[in-house]
Amino acid sequence: METILSLKDLTKKYGALTAVDNLSFTIKKGNVYGILGPNGSGKSTTLGMVLNVVNKTSGEFAWFGGNIKTHEALKKVGAIIEHPNFYPYMTAVQNLALVCKIKDVPKDKIEEKLEIVNLLDRKNSKFSTFSLGMKQRLAIASALLNDPEILILDEPTNGLDPQGIHQIREIIRKIAAGGTTILLASHLLDEVEKVCSHVVIIRNGKKLYSGPVDAINASHGFFELQAKNMQLLQELLIAHPGIENVSAKKNVVTAILKEPMDAETINEYLFEKGLSLSYLVKRKESLEEQFLELTNQTPSA
Amino acid sequence: MLRLLEIEYHKLRYSRSAKILVLTYFILITFIALIASIEFNLGAINFRVADQGIFNFPYIWHFNSYIAALLKLFLAIVIVSMMSNEYTNRTLKQNLIDGLSKKEFIASKFLTVMVFSLVSTIFLFIVSLILGLSFSDFTEVSIIFSDMEYMIAYFVKLTGFFAFCMFLGILIKRSAFALGFLFIWWILESIVYGVLKWKVFRDSEIADNIARFFPLESMSNLIKEPFSRLSAVQTAATQIGSEIDKDYGIHWDQLLIVLIWTVIFVFLSHKLLKKRDL
To answer: How high is the mean pLDDT of chain B?
Structure first.
């Protein structure tokens, strides 16, 4: 698979503070990537560095194999950063026409892209009259003008109302379905979970995990069980070779799996040993639980 | 290069304030012609400014380039705000992300500065030519096109001044503060000159020799005031017994100083932009 962007030991220091710490990962063509991390974890700084607006302290990054200059590479990239930035006195079309000039692409796609983000009816309104949601959608249209190899979105739904969030996510899903590589930075788990196939999790500028979303920890899920004789239940579970860890909370016993196992299998096993269950469910940890586990945070009540 | 100019033209053409200021500037230049119609009627004496020889070739090149240069502040506002607005609107960040390099960004701004200076120079040339042809006592081609170095000096002076404005716009990021800083800088130069002249190097030319290297001073030194060169003023001066002995010419070393400042300002703008995180 073609490599679009690769980072190697990329580091950014602001004085004593290390915002991005030896970050390395690779973006391959055709996947939808998420950069996940709490606020202030270095997501935007990382994107800023590869987008030529923040100077790196050390390390390397390379666009499209590294054979072209960054600003030339960026002409093949579509990116929006936290806040949509346009010239307030220009209309939507005039702003997009300027982007076309900068990116060296013909202007004939402006209407088509405005259509995608549902702004065609406001194309001749000044940018300053737009709502935040509209500004954000215009930013997406602008990022799509060159039919980019990769679309980079930094917190695209930040500050939007639920309807705005929904619209943006629909648009992203549509674009992703068209096969465009996407890199989405967000502190919102469900956003990443819903859209992305791969995820890079960072905290305090350090990479905690990178890989497919469904393999965040190589866990096989866990069972939650209940029986009359909780003591025996726990003993039997600990004795089973396929179970890694058993813990009890209130009236529920949680058994984490070492290897793939069906609920039926464990039910049969326990029944053979003379125990009948009153409650059995197999679950996989949600991305949120895994994320919190990875970032060592406890869920706030 | 054309692409960079197009980009900047696109940014400016839709900005109402920029359009108004640029228009005002060029209209004001044509207003130099109005000086021609100033007349005094002091009893029996009818005094008409146009008859005092200010529109005589080649003096008109000197006079008009000096007067027109006073108006450069209007374009300076446009230039300062076209730099600092990129910061306040955060469009500079977006421009870079869209694939403009920092070098290209500075280049597009500086090219615009050059175009402004060039258009202003050509415009002034045309206005002066028309005025001269209407009022000058001498209209031989050789006289008309003598002293053309005033036009070159005018171009260099504007370019240098606008490059300074461009640098201040980037340095300070806010147009109002940048213009304020320009004013403060001007006062500072005067103070430093004053201190050098009246305290440090009394009764010598050293202070002037140092001051002519200051950025604003070097620009204003390019075209010296033309008033005392008028024959009426000269005559009056002779009558009261003082001789005005001044060199009104354009000096190549002065041009060079301004050109060097221009290079420094463009270089510093680029350096500053490269160093900053946006």
So the answer is: 89
Query: How far is A80 from A184, CA to CA, in rounded Å?
Result: 10
Please state the ipTM of this predicted complex: 0.88
Q: Parallel, antiparallel, or unpaired: how do β-strands A243-249 and A252-257 relate? A: antiparallel
Q: Which domain holds residue B253?
A: 2-275
Whole-angstrom distance, CA of residue A204 vs CA of residue A295: 10
pLDDT single digits (tens) A5-36: 999 999 999 999 999 999 999 999 989 999 98
Find, in chain A, the residue whose alpha carbon is nearest to that of B14: A90
Separation in Å, CA of B271 to nearest CA in chain A: 13
Residue B108 has pLDDT above 90, yes or no: yes
| Residue to substitute from B90, B92, B97, B105, interface A, most A β-carbons within 10 A | B97
CATH superfamily label, A3-215: P-loop containing nucleotide triphosphate hydrolases (3.40.50.300)
Does the pLDDT of residue A217 top 60, yes or no? no
pLDDT tens per residue across span A56-77: 999 999 999 888 999 999 999 9
pTM over 0.80: yes
pLDDT over threshold 80, residue B241: no
- Mutation for B interface: A14, A64, A87, most B CBs within 10 A: A87
Nearest alpha-carbon partner for B219 in B194, B176, B186: B186
A75, B99: Cβ pair inside 8 Å? Answer: yes
**Class of domain A222-284 (CATH, top level):** alpha beta
Q: Average pLDDT, stretch A238-242? A: 87
- Is the CB of residue A187 less than 8 Å from the CB of residue A158? no
Q: If you write DSSP's letter for every residue of B87-140 in order, what string do you get?
A: HHTTHHHHHHHTT--HHHHHHHHHHHHHHHHHHHHHHHHHHHHHHHHHH-S---
User: Total domain count for chain B?
Assistant: 1
Q: Could you state, in order of their start, the residue ranges of all structural domains in chain A?
A: 3-215, 222-284
